[in-house]
Amino acid sequence: MYAIIENGGKQYKVSEGDVVRVEKLKAEIGDEVSFNALLVSDDGGVKLGKDVSGAKVTAKVEAQDKFRKIIVYKYKSKKNERKKQGHRQPFTAVRIEKISL
After folding, report:
1. What is the pTM of this model?
2. Mean pLDDT over residues 22-43, rounded?
3. pLDDT 10s digits, 48-64
4. Please, what sign has the CA dihedral across residues 13, 54, 95, 1?
5. Domain spans of the chain?
6. Cβ atoms within 10 A of the Cβ of 33, count?
């Protein structure tokens, strides 16, 4: 059984027991969070649209952290213009507990 959830403008394919890194959520470690399911697939087939309007995916927050650093380097030739920046995107790691219809 798996589901497609949405968070932060992105969609994630999740199953029970998976650990997923989603966009940062305002939640403490150990809190329960829920996501709306866009699609649910189980033994009975694939359900989406009105069939999954009440479907919820519950998860437990495991970590609040940042991804590894990426380097952004802007350069304009012949102008002596250079700019180097680093960026670390924050994320929330959640463990999928239950997919319910």
Report:
1. 0.81
2. 93
3. 888 888 899 999 999 99
4. negative
5. 2-100
6. 17
